[in-house]
Amino acid sequence: MTMLSSPRRPRDIALREPRGLMLALPAVFLLVGIFVVPIVIVIGVSLTDYNFGDSGAGFVGLRNYREFLGDPTALQALWHSIYYTLIVAPLTLCLGLFIACLIQARERFRHFYEIIFFLPVTSTFVAMALVWQFLLHGRIGPINEWLVRLGLERIDFLTDPEYALITLSAIGVWQLVGQSTILFLAGLAAIPQDIYDAGALDGMDQGWDRFSTLTFPLITPTALFVLITTTITAFQVFDSVAALTKGGPGISTQTLLYKIYLEAYQYSNTSYAATLSVLFLAIIFTFTLFQLFVANRNVHY
Amino acid sequence: MKASRVRIQGISKRFGDLEVLRRIDLDIEPGKLVCLLGPSGCGKSTLLRILAGFEPPTEGTVSIGGRDVTTFPSKKRDIAMVFQNFALYPHMSVESNIAAPLVMSRLSFLRRQPLFRFFSPSAQKIRREIRERVVETASLLQIDKLLKRKPAQLSGGQKQRVAIGRAIIREPLLFLMDEPLSSLDAGLRTQMRGEIAALQKRLGITTIFVTHDQTEAMTMADQVVVMSGGVILQSGSPREIFEDPAHLSVAKFLGSPSINVLDGEISDGLLRVEGLSFRVSSGAADLLVKVGIRPEELLIGRTQPPDAPSWRGKIQRVENLGHEALVYLTIEEASAARLVARVASDFVADPIQPSDTIFVMPRASKLKVFKEDGRRHDIAVKQPPRSQQSVLQAAR
User: Fold this and answer.
1) Fewest Cβ atoms closer than 10 Å to its Cβ: which of A268, A293, B46, B337?
2) B289 has which bridge partners?
3) Could you tell me the pTM of the whole model?
4) B89 to A205: CB separation less than 8 angstroms, yes or no
5) Is this complex's ipTM strictly greater than 0.85?
6) What is the CATH number of the domain that holds A230?
7) How big is the CA angle at A28 (ends A22 and A34), to the nearest 5 degrees?
8) Residues linked to residue B261 through DSSP beta bridges, in sequence order
9) Helices within B145-185 (DSSP H only)
10) Tens digit of pLDDT for each residue in A69-109?
11) Which residue ranges does the record assign to the ABC transmembrane type-1 domain (chain A) (predicted)?
């Protein structure tokens, strides 16, 4: 083979070297079988009236999608997911950066703080939910005890429709902030000390000057990454809903993923659940595309 | 131009048990370019960081321009620095990089916030003035075409110029450079060496320059400070340091190829080195010594000089560098000590062969005698009675 001459386009090589294609086949087959086929099946099911246990299914076109647009509970669930994400993602970002800066400034006990803030990420949420349930309980929870002692009214954090989703959002921040702190710590560690030294001579030696002119601009690639990953993770909220509120009270904490779960496994509405899943996938896919094409190019040095 | 005296008094620095600097005293005349020279780990960079205010000294004081700045934070010291890897702000354009020190010092906290400029004519006026200064500085350094670029789009030499621009724009009292040439390639290094020295002379700013490269020190500096193991071994003009080293380490550190060092002994008013005897100034106590001879202070020839002390040597290797040649040889007499001599290249144009026997005569007055602990032994070595230049090839 005279491969050393001019570089050829991959497509040309594929056409001239069928053996290469053959060698790639097992990997292609696995990729398609594991990732592409299930998505195609879900999209297919969403176009039928199939219910779990049915012996057959009829093609109904976009009827399920029209049904979604006229289903207030599903639209509510979508809104709840967006609402939750809008609270959790920015808060996690800011709090994570803030904590990371505080930890970075410490010389002793650094590892101690890193571990403490990372604990929620490593622990199983369903087990931790037990603790949250107790802490936030309307009657016996310590947090309400403190509120009473401060002369405030009791709040039914998880059972009052007005507070339940906000409470879950706060717990969501608690779950995710460790991850973003660790990522920001890595980002901060990558800023060379020389730059801070140069800044110290030029007059940006501490506080807001240093943060706004040096630290923040240099950490924006990390910040974008954290923003997108926490947005995706927050949009997928499910475990805290399932463990703490079951979507209630009423449907006040039903998120999109929980609604899909209900339709699929509680009501056996397989085709409708598939429709919602397609929608869900489309939204996550958009975030991912944003990360790939916008965020990666937005690194300005 | 501002030129300020720098005075370092009794500076020590310890990191835990490790003593990096031991009672450093140094006085620097206004407007001089001073080079801290030494092998890595000798404490020169730590001394520079203490001057910059990045590290507090464990003991001692630093004064710049008559002010004791020992406890001042970096930005209050009115100094500028060029870092080894330039430390440009990667997210800022060249223009903003050079402007940064002026923006920080001339605009108040409120006035530098991004939106504020639209409401404040005075802030806009100051920004215009800063811009003029940036353009002026950039054209001085011939980087005025690059002002809109980001550091990542610059070559090493251009980055270096931007770093220098950022340092000189505010006319500091003291200018520090931490191995500024080490990340440039060889050709550029030679060029920048000359440019930096010329710029320093033009601006007249007192400058302290850290390097481990003797050529940089010898070619650029007014004063060379040789450091080793956390102490200053010698401070003086490049010529003094080279001709009259106060310590064996200084002698070894300067000059390429390195100085030849032989064991010697002083007894009965004679210096004996590998079988040769020289007269020394009277009253010298008996002592074991190290004797240093620079490669260019060795004369070599094919016939034995009749009445000057010379060694019989065997040539091991000849490196012809074109304008000169290095002759590596061993002394036959005593311990087969190795020597290197620098000679004019026409000397080796004769068919001289490895393993040829030749005669080596050291120039007695140039012998540098050191005590066993490395410090210079202050005695004069006398010439042999009659020099035999006629039979010996002059070494340079």
Assistant:
1) A293
2) B264, B371
3) 0.75
4) no
5) no
6) 1.10.3720.10
7) 150
8) B292
9) 156-168
10) 888 888 888 898 999 999 999 999 999 999 998 888 887 78
11) 78-291
